[in-house]
Specification:
By secondary structure, the protein is an alpha/beta fold. The protein has one domain (9-248): Rossmann fold. It has nine helices and ten strands. The chain has helices at 21-31, 49-67, 83-86, 103-113, 124-133, 168-181, 196-205, 209-218, 223-233; strands at 15-20, 33-39, 42-47, 72-75, 116-117, 138-142, 153-157, 162-166, 241-242, 247-248. The protein has a six-stranded mixed beta sheet. A hairpin with a 2-residue loop joins strand 2 and strand 3. Helix 6 (168-181) packs across helix 7, helix 6 (168-181) packs parallel to helix 8 (209-218) and helix 6 crosses helix 9 (223-233). The longest helix is centred in the N-terminal third of the chain and has 19 residues, at 49-67. The two termini are 17 Å apart.
């Protein structure tokens, strides 16, 4: 089991909600941020953290009430990221994106207030993926991030109030889709000229790794490049994590 699983309730005790803390902390702070006009062309930004905390608390309460689950953990990203060793430019574009005022202090409040997890070099998505696919616990991932569609298990999407069960076949297909299309926000390109519609057409016909490699080879790119893009796209699952060493086992073709 992952190193943090010892803190989870036993399987017979309860279902655990795995909250995407990065996403909802950001949204709470952004919603509570406002521009202030001091006159004489002087403006500033300020965040009412009391309001942000109320927004976050209300989100947690509404989610628990809707799913009828009262046990949850907030998953947070580490400042380091193992994907940067695969490609140093990973998420490089996000350095230009400003976090809401008070965001760092808000995360400290979450750590002082809630049951939370963070692991070195992992993103919050990876924690959701590892814990959700680990044997022996009942969990529901809570996130509106489309990347979580690549993880088998139960996923609740609060914006649409949609609770879905993702099969391994569907998760693998979405993983291959992301490997082909890339993600501009995360800073990896995927396969040139392959967009969402092309990827869907290719994978509907044959949802296999060979399909992915063939698409790359048509663009004069080898299997090694396809593997690199896959490792950037991969949201970690239980089998991708070495609990004893506390390290990532990079995805290889042929692995589930």
């Amino acid at each position: 089991m992952p190193s943090f699983s010892k803190y989870l309730p036993k399987p017979e005790e309860s279902t655990v909600l795995l909250i995407d803390g990065d996403l909802y902390a950001y949204r709470a702070c952004a919603a509570a941020e406002e521009e202030i006009d001091w006159g004489d062309d002087v403006w500033s930004l300020a965040t009412d953290l009391r309001q942000a905390k109320e927004i976050f608390e209300e989100f947690i309460k509404n989610t628990c009430d809707h799913l009828r689950v009262d046990t949850y953990v907030v998953c947070l990203s580490d400042s380091g990221n193992f994907r940067k060793a695969i490609d140093p430019s990973y998420k490089g574009g996000r350095k230009k994106l400003r976090k809401p005022v008070g965001y760092a202090e808000f995360l400290k409040w979450i750590e002082d207030t809630y049951w939370w997890f963070r692991e070195p070099l992992l993103e919050a998505d990876d924690l959701l993926g590892i814990i959700s696919t680990a044997p022996g616990h009942k969990t529901i991932m809570v996130s509106d991030d489309k990347d979580l569609r690549s993880v088998p298990g139960k996923l609740y999407r609060p914006m649409s109030e949609e609770l879905v069960t993702i099969s391994q076949a569907d998760a693998d297909k979405w993983f291959y889709t992301q490997t082909l299309t890339g993600d501009v926000t995360d800073g990896y390109a995927g396969c040139p000229t392959v967009g969402a519609k092309t990827a869907e057409k290719l994978l509907d016909k044959s949802p296999t790794w060979n399909t992915v490699v063939n698409a790359y080879q048509k663009q004069k790119l080898g299997a090694d490049h396809a593997v690199q893009q896959a490792r950037l796209a991969r949201i970690l699952r239980y089998q991708d994590w070495d609990a004893e060493a506390g390290s990532v086992k990079l995805w290889e073709p042929g692995h589930a």
